[in-house]
Amino acid sequence: MDDNKALVDIQKMCLSKQGFRDIHGFYDPFEALAFLKGRSVFLLVTDFNMPGMNGLELIDASPKVPNIILTSCSFPENIELKRECRKRGVIPMEKMTALHRFHQRYGNRQAFTEREI
Q1: Which of the pair, 31 or 89, is modelled with greater confidence?
Q2: Residue 44, Ramachandran bin (φ over 0: left; ψ between -120 and 50: alpha; else beta)
Q3: Which of 32, 31, 15, 33 is nearest to 23 (CA)?
């Protein structure tokens, strides 16, 4: 989920190369929220800075997702935002390192291949 279409496309490509399947990308947080309601998902990657609803608001409104990465919020000046992320079990980080870190945290590619995002 990102309001920047190019970044959504890049993240989808990276996840696909990591072995994920059934990947859905959204450019509007309200469309993403509508999709998430009533579904079980393994991973949510969302931008923080979006028009209409920020990433934490999307996370708070979404059903429980076991793994959440919130991007664009790991800058040093966002210490309070990082605290809010940790309260929710959310991984805050830069877009460029988000998927790499997730892969490091959860192991080899085979662990992802049968999971749905």
Answers
A1: 31
A2: beta
A3: 15
Q: Whole-angstrom Cα distance, residue 47 to residue 106?
A: 21
Is the separation of the CB atoms in 84 and 56 below 8 Å? yes
Q: List, as one string, the DSSP characters of 52-100.
A: SS-HHHHHHHSPP-SEEEEES--SGGGHHHHHHHHHHT-EEE-HHHHHH
d(CA 90, CA 16): 22
Which residues on adjacent β-strands are paired with residue 21?
A: 116
* Residue ranges of domains in the chain: 5-111
CATH 3.40.50.2300 fits 5-111, yes or no: yes
Q: Which residue has the higher pLDDT, 61 or 72?
A: 61
- Count of alpha carbons within 13 angstroms of residue 52, beta-carbon side: 10
Answer whether 0.85 is exceeded by the pTM: no
Above 50 in pLDDT, residue 93? Answer: yes
Q: Which residue has the higher pLDDT, 98 or 35?
A: 35
Residue 38: how many other CB atoms lie within 10 Å: 7
